[in-house]
Amino acid sequence: MLCMSILLAAATVNKLTGFAIANNKNNHSRSINYTTVTGYFLQDEPTTNATTFNFTATSFGLINRTYSTDQSYDPHGKKTQWQRFAHQISELNRNSPHHVQYKLLFLGRHGDGFHNDAQAFYGTPAWNCFYSVIDGNATVTWADAHLSPLGLSQALNVHTFWSSQFRSQNQPAPQSYYTSPLTRCLQTANYTFSGLDLPKHHPFVPTVKELLREGISGHTCDRRSNATYIREIYPSYKFEDPFPEKDPLWQELHGETNIDQSIRSRIVLDEIFETDSSTYISITSHSGEIASILGGTIPFKLASPMSVATDKYT
After folding, report:
1. Which pTM value belongs to this model?
2. Among 42, 102, 176, 210, which residue carries the largest CB count within 10 Å?
3. Could you write out the DSSP letters of every residue in 259-283?
4. Would you list the DSSP string of 224-258?
5. Sequence-ordered alpha helix ranges (H) in the chain
6. pLDDT tens digits, residue range 234-280?
């Protein structure tokens, strides 16, 4: 599982990850410009190797540095890096124009799923040509794939990491949670965040959003379960309205283009920025969708599982 942090700056005119600024004008004719705010996370640095990067060993990649606000906020050097960074974000938002806002996105990829294991077992050519379009084999189902035992352990390891960050770094917890409607993400979010010592006013109650799903293909692993089933398994989750009973996007033997995915990624990111005033946002999704959300601004490919903290603004 991979988790990426990104600081996005969004202005009415990001990742896994980082810091964003958003413009909050209340009219539908406006557009939002997203910009990655660099200099805060290792994921932005050209010298960082995406293949070997370990977010749990680097405090989500937060760079050990000073900030312009340190002298007044922490004159005796008693605060942690995350406390000082959180204050920096607060000051950026306090001093920004009314149409600009900074948000820190924690973009987490789901853990290893049975579809990942099946592709590794059969090989990519056989997977793409045959096995990916059927529901499973005699021993396992990979349609709307569930987490494998490895995937479950990965999510629990990230849970432990978050808990450690809260205790040792006084890191801010997400204030809002969003997840893809595919089971592997619903599970990953649950195992990652349930049971953590979270602020009572910001509990783990994720919103399921249709457009946060993986790139849509004819693969059955990308076909979500019916809404009734999802609601029964996760009764505490919230669902965007409308959330149709049957998957409205998946079609047998049909896939969306990269341009189509980019468009829907922009739509869902705009929806979040336009309706959510939170500064710290968690998004549990997929490697392809997270890459689409980042729009190529950060050349990180999320392994399974990984979280990335990144900076971006609109």
Report:
1. 0.90
2. 102
3. HHHHHHHHHHHHHHHHH---SEEEE
4. PPPHHHHHHH-TT-EE-SS--SS-SS--TT----H
5. 70-73, 81-95, 114-122, 124-129, 149-169, 183-193, 227-233, 258-275, 287-294
6. 999 999 999 999 999 999 989 999 999 999 999 999 999 999 999 99
For residue 276, the number of C-alpha atoms closer than 13 Å in the C-beta half-sphere is 28
Our answer to whether residue 256 is catalytic in this structure is: no
Q: Which tokens in the block code for residue 155?
A: 């999510």
* Residues 290, 95: Cα–Cα separation, whole Å: 29
Residues with Cβ within 8 Å of residue 131, at least 6 apart in sequence: 118, 119, 122, 137
- Is there a contact between 310 and 43 (Cβ–Cβ < 8 Å)? yes
Alpha-carbon distance of 68 to 84, in angstroms, equals 10
Catalytic pick from 115, 146, 214, 219? 214
- Both tokens of residue 312? 């971006």
214 flagged as catalytic: yes
